Amino acid sequence: MEMKECKEDIDSMIDDSLRQPPDFIIPASFTDKLVKKLEKQLAWKDLLSEFGIKTGLVVAALVVMLICLIFPAKNDPVPWLDWIARNRFIVTGLIGVLMFTILFDQILLKFMFRKTGKSY
Question: Residues 2-45: pLDDT tens digits?
Fold first, then answer.
């Protein structure tokens, strides 16, 4: 008997709450704003992960190349390594410009000109 009364009490509470107007109203543009925000977050996540993978591949290829060039020349002096050491500021500047160009090309331009799925 108690279970039946409890169920009827809960049913009456649910009916009462459904008859009352809501305390707040969700604006009509809520879903559009939410979808745009989620699309932006997912686009950044995709672009940054893609850039990270490409950067990792380039760094790994450079490490393999350096290992292949340095280990066979243990006894011989490595002239290009001396040249890099002497011109380290130019080399680091060129690497910085290259990384900025790749970052701008692979992330910022793709993000700015991505398709949002809307057709006008």
Answer: 666 677 788 888 888 888 887 778 888 988 999 999 988 988 88
CA distance 26 to 34: 12
Distance CA 80, CA 78 (A): 6
Mean pLDDT of the chain: 79
Nearest to 51 by CA among 104, 93, 117, 115: 104
Least Cα distance to 51 among 119, 100, 118, 6 occurs for 100
Rg of the chain over CA atoms, in angstroms? 31
The packing angle between helices 30-70 and 88-103, to 10°, is 150
